[in-house]
């Protein structure tokens, strides 16, 4: 399993270079069945999630190729995934205040500060979810999935806690409203009026 991509899956945008002129390609499934005569209007387009998952998978594959020494997917571990997440921090846009910063714990600081920009926890969490799914879709076994490693889960939990404290933002799961049952919610019928 040394290949990064499933040979049946088409290579996508961002696999070579990136820039303002790299636009998403109209990709079709190899099993779409209508052959070369299929028009782009009848070919199924990828959902936003599927497109993002493919871009993330290709980005991770490129990271493995550029790794020194180059690393095959089969030899990739949770430690390599953590290395990748830390590498991505340099492109982050979320201000994470240090404990020495006067704005530590403030969600909307009134002035700029020199604290570092990082990847937001929610972005990393979603990224790992997409890569975890892509790994298995591209032939990886669930029990050897490096994106599901305990170290990765612990790292994400730590990032969430640190950012929550530093930014003064709660990352608690939102409570779902209980579904209202129709038969219990109807008010009783008004009493019949006497004539």
From TrEMBL:
Q: Which GO terms describe its cellular component?
A: nucleus
Where do the ALOG domain residues begin and end? 48-175
Q: Which UniProt keywords apply?
A: Developmental protein, DNA-binding, Nucleus, Transcription, Transcription regulation
Q: Which compartments is it annotated to reside in?
A: Nucleus
Alphabetized GO MF terms = DNA binding
Q: Name one Pfam family in it.
A: ALOG_dom
InterPro entries given in the database record? ALOG, ALOG_dom
* Segments for region (Disordered): 1-51, 165-195
Composition bias (Low complexity) maps to: 12-47
Any single biological process term in GO: response to light stimulus
The entry's family comment says: Belongs to the plant homeotic and developmental regulators ALOG protein family.
Q: What is this protein called?
A: Protein LIGHT-DEPENDENT SHORT HYPOCOTYLS 4-like
- Cite the source lineage: Eukaryota, Viridiplantae, Streptophyta, Embryophyta, Tracheophyta
